[in-house]
Design brief:
Length: 452
């Protein structure tokens, strides 16, 4: 089975879109002349040309309505090889000025940004063999040559460390979340390194409806507007936009089939996983099944998502410049005083926990491994250091990310740049605290020296 979703983490195609069978003599509902080839909703049969116009118009309208992308701006298209992101790249290609397949002058005017494509090779995390990875990459390059935009081919990490990290994650849910996090860090890194100020992802409304429900279940309710909205400004200098959010999976499949959009199939972390293997898979099966019976399911969830606002909770320390989650980079919704909330309970229990309990939670043995106790070579000391590092990371995670990271036996296996950032932040916090102490002593008139 292959990864075929519209976004990066996508389900395999469960079945091909049904071939529409319009009634005898029926004509396209738009032009009343063409032979219908696509039925979007009951009764709405479109001819090939009208479907294309409808499809491309949605894409341009989404960009036009939000007015976020400026002429000449460098935009990085995050392409996974799956249907929706491939469809997105194809539309950008088709409405480019001077492109042989380009549309009217009018449409060309609206897309005068400078596109580039990024493809993330995550074969290492998905357990793909080197041969299979090479084969996939050859297909990827073939498509990139056809598209002929500047492109960036990057691998999550070439070392064995990444494989070990992913193998150590205990649940598929945490594995999927971790993969999404690392992938988004990498895409942002590529964008910054090459001067792109926008990143476009191919999330369709079907995918976003599933993501909204999944993230709600994962304790990310506070960040839904960022995670599923049209634009995501959490990174400041690089804004992530989702121009495919009005397209359904069904429309994407029709468009790709009618216009022979090239796709590259790659395995995902949940390939071959049963339906209940992760929150992601379960929610996807739930929404798609509901959608099959009640066709307004996806649009209802999606429209509800549109109403969510991106404001931190009242009374929370995290403004735009407040502390950010180390992994998802959302404003830390820390509310330690309020222990009645799940987050408050989690935070206070973490700070009160002795290091050995933390380890027990993480699934490593708790019995002392040497009988020396306090000696210089005692492993309790070494363990203490590990716990410090673990706590340093955990303290800087949001509620949802803490939940996911609790499924990792050890946070030491996270990529070094994340650990380094965690260390830097807690050092900075330590220095700030020291300065604070001196400031208080300065302000007092007592003639005592600094306490040692
Ligand atoms: Zn027509
Ligand atoms: Zn987070």
């Amino acid at each position: 089975m292959c990864q075929v979703g519209e976004d990066y983490v996508e389900p395999p195609p469960r079945e091909p879109p049904p071939v529409p069978r319009p009634g005898c003599g029926q004509k396209c509902v738009k032009c009343k002349q063409g032979d219908p080839v696509v039925v979007i909703r009951a009764g709405d049969a479109f001819c090939r040309d009208c479907f294309k116009a409808f499809y491309v118009h949605k894409f341009r309208a989404m960009l036009g309505k939000n007015r976020l992308i400026f002429p000449g701006e460098k935009v990085l298209l995050a392409w996974s090889g799956g249907p929706s992101s491939s469809s997105m790249v194809w539309q950008v290609l088709e409405v480019r000025p001077h492109h042989p397949q380009g549309l009217s002058q009018d449409s060309a005017k609206r897309l005068r940004f400078v596109p580039g494509v990024v493809y993330v090779d995550e074969g290492a995390a998905c357990g793909q063999s080197p041969e299979d990875r090479a084969k996939t990459l050859a297909e990827v390059k073939q498509v990139l040559h056809v598209v002929n935009f500047p492109w960036h081919l990057v691998a999550l990490e070439e070392t064995e460390a990444l494989c070990r990290l992913f193998e150590s994650v205990r649940t598929l849910t945490a594995k999927e979340e971790l993969l999404q996090t690392l992938r988004s860090h990498l895409i942002l890194h590529v964008a910054r390194a090459h001067g792109y100020s926008k990143v476009m992802t191919g999330d369709s409304c079907t995918r976003l409806a599933i993501k909204l429900m999944t993230n709600l279940a994962l304790g990310r309710g506070a960040f839904l507007a960022w995670d599923t909205g049209f634009s995501d400004e959490r990174h400041g200098d690089v804004v992530v936009v989702r121009p495919m959010r009005d397209h359904t999976l069904k429309e994407v499949a029709f468009y790709n089939r009618l216009f022979a959009v090239p796709l590259v199939f790659t395995p995902a972390v949940d390939t071959k996983a049963p339906e209940k293997a992760s929150v992601h898979r379960l929610m996807e099966a739930f929404i798609l099944r509901l959608q099959a019976q009640f066709p307004s399911t996806v649009s209802t969830v999606y429209r509800t998502g549109e109403k969510l606002v991106k404001a931190p909770r009242d009374g929370c320390g995290g403004g735009p410049s407040g502390p950010r989650c180390l992994l998802c980079l959302c404003t830390l919704d820390i509310d330690t005083a309020d222990s009645a909330t799940a987050f408050g309970a989690q935070t206070s229990s973490l700070s009160q926990m002795p290091p050995s309990t933390l380890q027990a939670e993480a699934g490593t043995p708790t019995a002392p491994c040497c009988a020396v106790g306090e000696g210089p070579g005692c492993c309790w000391k070494a363990r203490g250091r590990t716990d410090d590092a673990q706590a340093q990371v955990t303290q800087q995670l949001c509620y949802g990310c803490r939940g996911n990271m609790s499924d990792l036996p050890s946070l030491d296996r996270l990529p070094p740049y994340i650990l380094a950032e965690a260390q830097l932040r807690s050092q900075r916090a330590g220095v700030m605290q020291e300065i604070q102490e001196y400031l208080i002593e300065d302000s007092s008139d007592e003639a005592e020296g600094p306490q040692s």
